[in-house]
Amino acid sequence: MAAAFKTVEPLEYYRRFLKENCRPDGRELGEFRTTTVNIGSITTADGSALVKLGNTTVICGVKAELAAPAVDSANKGYIVPNVELPSLCAERFRSGPPGEEAQAASQFIADVIENSQMIMKEDLCIANGKLAWVLYCDIICLDYDGNLLDASVFALLAALKNVQLPLVTINEETGLSEVNLKQKNPLIIRKHPVATSFAIFDDTLLIVDPTAEEEDLATGTVTIVTDEEGRLCSVHKPGGSPLTGAKLQDCITRAITRHKEVKKLIDKVIKSITPK
Q1: Which of 97, 105, 185, 216 places its Cα 20 to 30 Å from the Cα of 237?
Q2: How far apart are CA 34 and CA 254, in angstroms?
Q3: Residue 256 has what pLDDT?
Q4: How far apart are alpha carbons 119 and 30 in whole angstroms?
């Protein structure tokens, strides 16, 4: 009977749960799904991480290449993020060139990297005007069940913390670059941005970490990105219901709390794989 009601009136079905301050999957309104991270999953990448947020599964691989810096920023390297939503992760996505949702997610990740200053592009420069690192960050969704942005930012951060770059020098006599694969150094991660997403129901009610079903029924979504100092790095609100100042402040406060949980999880996993 409940399944039939859910099919005919999905929104009303959800409202009955929300009135009781819970959700159909058993979570409270402010409760996140179980979050796990596996670092160094792709051996062919320079850094990688696999993140699961409930059923939503995202993998990030970072590939580092050498290139000449741009003329107008001779002392900077490049970070090139790309989010892929292949047809295998959900029925709603199609094979072929990236759709609107994948493009919007890629732009969001690029904005987070820029605004949070998690990596200074100057740190990627090897020789001013001659040589710099390019970090290609490919974020691929393997299973889509809502809240893609939180999982993507988490996977990106964990993968970047896993990157080891070889020492590169330029031979003054030949002018050619020499790569020392025996001597590798980790990336300098200056900030640790973490995203926290909320779905807005009936223009007033906020629920965290929405599933794909909840996103479809919601009247709007908002994603807050904060760093370890509680600094606001980004607010992403693609249309939908407006938020009052008080509601937005509530979201930011919850995002700061969530940041501590995610940072603790990453630190624990990195510690477990670091050689004693």
Answers
A1: 97
A2: 17
A3: 93
A4: 31
- Long-range CB contacts for residues 10-18, cutoff 8 Å, separation at least 24: 10/213, 10/217, 11/217, 14/201, 14/214, 14/217, 15/201, 15/202, 18/201, 18/205, 18/207
The answer to whether the Cα torsion of 107, 112, 115, 118 is positive or negative is: negative
**Per-residue pLDDT tens digits for 121-162:** 999 988 888 889 999 999 999 999 989 999 999 999 999 999
HEC assignment per residue over the chain? CHHHHHHHCHHHHHHHHHHCCECCCCCECCCCCCEEEEECCCCCCCEEEEEEECCEEEEEEEEEEEECCCHHHCCCCEEEEEEECCHHHCCCCCCCCCCHHHHHHHHHHHHHHHHHCCCCHHHHEEECCCEEEEEEEEEEEEECCCCHHHHHHHHHHHHHHHCEEEEEEECCCCCCEEEEEEEEEECCCCCCCEEEEEEEECCCEEEECCCHHHHHHCCEEEEEEECCCCCEEEEECCCCCCCCHHHHHHHHHHHHHHHHHHHHHHHHHHHHHCCC
Q: Are 147 and 55 in contact (CB under 8 A)?
A: no
CA distance 152 to 147: 9
pLDDT in tens, 263-276: 999 888 888 877 65
